[in-house]
Structures are given as structure tokens and as C-alpha cells.
Write a structure and sequence with these properties.
Length: about 400
Amino acid sequence: MPEHSLNEFRSHTPAASLRLHMDNAGSALMPVPVIERMEKQLKLEAEVGGYVGQERTTAEMEGVYASLAALFGGRAADYALTSGTVDAWTRLFYSIPFAPGDNLVTGYNEYCANYVAYLHQVERRGIEIRVAPPGANGELDVAALESLVDARTKLISLVHVPSSSGQVNPVAAVGKVARANGVPFLLDAAQSAGHVPVNVDEIGCDMLVGTARKFLRGPRGVGFLYVRPETRRRLELAFVTNNSAWVAADRFTLRDDARVFEAWERNMVAILGFGAALGYFRSHDPAALMARTLGLADRLRSGLAGIPGVVMTCPPGAYGAIVTFRKEGHDPAAVKALLEAEGIAVNVASVAHTRLDLEARGIETTLRASPHYYLSEEDIDRFVERISAL
């Protein structure tokens, strides 16, 4: 990437010169245009109220759906906005018409919030959870996953990138399995959207969820979902609101787009900030931005692996922009606190977040560093040197 582009990203991210932010898998630093758009909307709402503020920005809000479709495939009408990824995922998952004896197929590196919902449906609906294991190379075993699918499989549900490592699941191969067996495929792209290519048509997923706050550099409090029209029409909505249907005194008719999953009440400040983040991402060559983020992750992974006493905890073959590791003799939570005091942000991945994977590998906690394209190579090297000096 040209040096002038990096300088632009740095100028749009003033905090990047004040702290070393290596927790973008948690929540990235927003660029100035996003912050300014949110401030403008907040000022408008302070002057005219939230409802009028929304009325005056209806066309711009419509552009958020169009940007999602332009980035991730499908049509604008196939997208809905929610308060976060878990909110989006839950609205879709609980609309799957499970019956006793049905099963769902997931992966060994599934996220905790999703898995808890699976367990809830085991208790509530009498379904079975089938977990596809890793293969010999540590990657999700697609053949094993396919062997778990049968006539009672109502859903295949995976994360694209788990929260505890930079592993990238082979979701396009899973999409082929889903289509061949006529099983809906729900993909959680919270940790991939913005740094790994995501296209619903190329992947072959029927439903997808994501968030604004991570690699897309938007605000907290906004998520999105995608659902194919033919899939949506086979779902049984867990609940409906006045935004979901046209209401008469004795009947209702559901609206015929993905916004059937939306609530009327919404945070327009955050939504328009998300729209600005999507616009920023689209205007700077998304493929180049993602390549830069992955390149920085590769530099980080290689640098850390060369430090004596550092144990890399990403599975073999991991290449996403989530890098997990431990330094022998150092508690990850204590290291996080130490680094934060020095203006360096990392996070701690816990067995509670990706239990099936980390528990099987005997990992209770591990440090998680996640770079982004607005960081420099010197930032990565400085971080590696700091870990070496622990």
C-alpha cells in the first residue's frame, strides 16, 4: 500500500499516534469521518428530536443497506440492521423451525453465545447438536461435517473466524455441502467482515450476520443480518413487531423483505456512523485494505513466533488478523493490564468464549492481538519487541 495511503489512515485515526491499538477484533478505532457523522446526527437530534432526525436522514439510512449488499452480495432488501451480532444471529436462529429429533451441525470452534443457544434448543425443542471436528491439519474437517448431515438436519451453523484464533474456516466448501443437501447455512461473520473476503453468493450461505465495531471500524451497538428470500420465507419468526407486519384489527401480513427482523426503535447516530464506516471502507479499495490487514497479521505472527518463551496458540494454518499467544511465566490477564498501562491494547481469549476448541487443547486463557490496516509495520515490530522484553 502506498505510504501516502497509510499517512491518510493515520491522520484519520488520531489515537493511533497516542496508543498502540491491537484489539481490533474487540472494537476498532473509528476513523474521523465516522465520528464526525455521528456527532452531526447527535447535534441534529438535539435540535429537532430523534423522530424528525430520522425522517431527515431516511435516504441516507437506505444507503446503509445498499452498501452492505455492495460489499457482501445479495440485494439491499435482503439485509436488516440490529443492535449487534448476537441480536442479529439470535433473531435468525430462533426462527429455525426445529422439531424434536431434529439436529444442527456446527464446528468445534463455535462462539459461546451461539453454542448456549444450541443448548437452549436442546432443552426446549429436543434437538441434537452435532459437532464437526478439526482434521489432521487443525482445520475444520469438511468431510466429517458432511458425514454428520442427514434427513433430520435443519441447520448448519458456523463462525467464519473464531474469537480465539486467526483460523479461517473453509466456509465456501461448507456452502457446497449445505446446497447439496438442501440444508440452510447460517454464518457468523462478526470476526471476518472487513479483513477476510466475505460474499454470500461465493460462500453459498443462506444467512449471515456481522457487526459494525470490529474490522469495519464502525461504532458499537450496530449489527446486521442477511437472509436469502427463499430461506426467509421458510422461517418461523420467533416474534414480530409493528415493524414486521402490516396490521389490521384482526390480522397481519408480514412484510416481504429482511427488515421483517427489525424493530422500529433504532439508534440513528450509530446506524449513520456505520454507514459512514462502510462508505469509508468502500472508498479505499476493500481488497487492498484487507490484504494489508492480513499482511500485518502475518508479520505479527512471524515476529511473535521467533521470541523465546512465546507459545503460539493459534492452530496451524491460521492466517486471520487474530493472533493468540502466551508468554511462559506470565498470566495473560496480568500482561493485558501491564500493556494497557503503557498505552498498548490487547485482549484475553478465554476458554469460556470458544470452549470446545480451547478446552480440548488445554488452554484456559491466552493473549489476543488483532492488528488493522491503519497500523504501521513499525507498530507491529514495536509490539513484538515489547512482548520479547516481558
